[in-house]
Specification:
mainly alpha; about 70% helix; globular
């Protein structure tokens, strides 16, 4: 088993140049949700595969070969490597996870900061990317509103609550902006 220090040393360069909403703090927030979901559902999961998948989920789609090589060099068996890579891919938003660990990580990724977080993350990420508020709201409308989905029984209502809040926030902000522009 890889130590937390070894794993952090490997992943840190991959997250250093990511924006503030996708850096190592993001990993910590998702880990808290993973633990919360496991506790809610009293799930028995492969914690090592889940830990590794969480660490790699932010760059598995770009650097899968480097991840596989690293894990192999660290003595991880092929079954663990395959499982953590699968879970990391399953955690991505457009994917439909199949494994229990993949559902857990996917749902934790969607819910990472609670019901208000999708709005906060979208606004901050848009700002970091240099988008105007109108451009960010357009992105929110096209890529966030009602696009989040969870798969575990305990997370489905939490996701619905988050989606409802995001829609309400979007409508109220657009109305407020519209009223200001017209006045």
């Amino acid at each position: 088993m890889l130590s937390d220090e070894e794993l952090l040393a490997f992943i840190k360069p991959y997250y250093e140049n990511k924006d503030v909403m996708h850096n190592l703090w993001h990993i910590e927030l998702v880990q808290k949700q993973v633990d919360h979901i496991i506790s809610l559902g009293k799930y028995k999961v492969d914690r090592e595969a889940l830990r590794l998948a969480l660490a790699f989920h932010g760059f598995v789609y770009r650097d899968e070969i480097a991840i596989r090589t690293y894990l192999s060099e660290k003595g991880c068996n092929e079954a663990l490597i395959e499982k953590c890579i699968l879970i990391a891919h399953e955690s991505q938003r457009p994917e439909i996870p199949v494994t229990l660990e993949g559902k857990n990580l996917h749902d934790a990724h969607v819910l990472e900061g609670g019901k208000t977080y999708a709005v906060v993350k979208t606004l901050i990420t848009g700002s970091v990317r240099g988008q105007s508020l109108i451009e960010t709201l357009d992105y929110l409308e096209k890529h966030v509103l009602d696009k989040n989905k969870c798969y575990l029984p305990e997370t489905i209502p939490l996701c619905a609550e988050m989606n409802d809040f995001t829609s309400m926030f979007y409508r109220e902000l657009c109305q407020g902006i519209s009223d200001q522009v017209i006045s």
